[in-house]
Fold this sequence. Notes:
Blueprint: H1 10-40, H2 50-73, H3 79-100, H4 107-144
Amino acid sequence: xxxxxxxxxxxxxxxxxxxxxxxxxxxxxxxxxxxxxxxxxxxxxxxxxxxxxxxxxxxxxxxxxxxxxxxxxxxxxxxxxxxxxxxxxxxxxxxxxxxxxxxxxxxxxxxxxxxxxxxxxxxxxxxxxxxxxxxxxxxxxxxxxxxxxxxxxxxxxxxxxxxxxxxxxxxxxx
Length: 174
């Protein structure tokens, strides 16, 4: 049994409104939070568990790369979100390596690993995810007989669209 919600179903409308409220409120909160942090954080701070933070982050990164590789080998569409997750983690890793090694003897190594490893791999994964989404859209568009698909930013999510009631071919009625 599968659950199908039409775009104007009360549950679908409620979920969309709830999602929009949460994501918009998060955006506004984070803007204020960034201003607060920029004005209140000390420039220097010693922390405990530095090793646990970095090893933990790298474990998440290894797991994400592993999942991305697994789904790529199996040719499953779940590869797309995993590629985006992995690329995002790689960008975060490069950012923190460089920023935290600024004014230290380790900066050249951080710049090298970011420039040769992390950021090119992230770019490849973002490109692959975008390309796979585009190819999936083109295939769906072709199956629907609508010709060339429009640019991704112009396509609305069909779950949120009000779909017309199909007409009966013989009577022309809805």
